Amino acid sequence: MNYFNLEYVKYRRLELNMTLQDAADAMGMKNASTYMKYENGTYAFRAEQLPLLAKIFKCKIENFFIKKVAKTAI
User: Fold this and answer.
1) Of 8, 49, 62, 64, which has the fewest CB atoms closer than 10 Å, so is most exposed?
2) Would you kindly state where each structural domain of the chain is located, as residue ranges?
3) Using CA atoms, how far apart are residues 39 and 7, in angstroms rounded to an integer?
């Protein structure tokens, strides 16, 4: 099962030396506080936002997801 990786989103923003306000502006959001709620998981990024997010963070959409697999007992 794939999960959206909010840690990666924050990591990429910081790696690109972007402020919360920079990210909010690029995403067309009102302010940094609104963007922060997405990055912290209060709000969920919508599927239609992911192509823009990937463009802003110069990565592939796939990079936003992690695969979690349950370990099987042997």
Assistant:
1) 62
2) 2-67
3) 8
Name the CATH superfamily, with its identifier, for domain 2-67.
lambda repressor-like DNA-binding domains (1.10.260.40)
Residues 1 and 25: their CA atoms lie apart, in Å, by: 32
pLDDT greater than 70 at residue 70: no
Cβ atoms < 10 Å from Cβ of 57:
20
Query: Cα-flanking dihedrals φ and ψ of residue 40, to 5°?
Result: -90, -5
- The continuous run of DSSP H or E covering 58 comes out as none
What are the structure tokens assigned to 48, written together? 């239609």
Alpha helices in the chain (DSSP H): 6-15, 20-27, 32-39, 50-56
